[in-house]
Amino acid sequence: MDPFHNIFKAKSLPGGWSMADIDSENIKNVSKWIITTQFENQPAYSVVYAEQQVVAGMNYKLVLAIIIAGKREMWEFIVYDHFGKYSLTSSKIL
Questions:
Q1: What is the pTM of this model?
Q2: Nearest residue to 33 via CA among 72, 78, 93, 67
Q3: Contact status, residue 94 vs residue 63, Cβ threshold 8 Å
Q4: What is the pLDDT of residues 24-83, one digit of tens each?
Q5: Among 17, 49, 78, 82, which has the minimal tally of Cβ within 10 Å of its Cβ?
Q6: Phi, psi of 26 (to 5 degrees)
Q7: Can you list the domains of the chain with their CATH numbers?
Q8: Alpha-carbon gap, residue 74 to 6, rounded angstroms
Q9: Which of 88, 84, 82 is nearest to 38 (CA)?
């Protein structure tokens, strides 16, 4: 066995971020909420990457590819889900 195997093996730390399934219902619901609340014209989009963090509720970090004015833009959003009530923590264009 490679001696570095355990060092580089991805682990989820308690309270840390872990990868999330971009096809899960939770990620679909959060991404739809982002698009409907943050963009007037509800542009076409796809989820490129997602992470989640257990807190008093759940934090979601999503990277979305969004078509705006005919151009593809990459955005990162962090959304706090307090048992079904979403709030946007941060957003930035990448």
A1: 0.82
A2: 78
A3: yes
A4: 999 999 999 999 999 998 899 999 999 999 999 999 999 999 999 999 999 999 999 999
A5: 82
A6: -60, -45
A7: 20-93 (3.10.450.10)
A8: 33
A9: 88
Tokens of 34: 């982002």
CA 49 to chain centre: 6
> Token match 């979601």: residue?
60
DSSP string for the chain: --TTHHHHS--PPTTS-EE--TTSHHHHHHHHHHHHHH-TT---EEEEEEEEEEESEEEEEEEEEEEETTEEEEEEEEEEEETTEEEEEEEEE-
